[in-house]
Amino acid sequence: MEKHLTAKEVAKRLKMHLDKVYILLRTGQLKSHKSGRYWRIRQEDLIRFLKERKIGKSANS
User: How big is the chain by its Cα radius of gyration, in Å?
Assistant: First the structure.
């Protein structure tokens, strides 16, 4: 079974403000889906997002 995270859980894991997480979700930078009023992020999508950001930062350095 897939592990899904809430936006609040993602914010806590990334040590990021919740509003920033919502921006990432709304702009599609962080893949997710809405379940009613709530955003759900698959754990594997969060890992992919983090890997892509790390690669992007390395390329810009």
Answer: 12
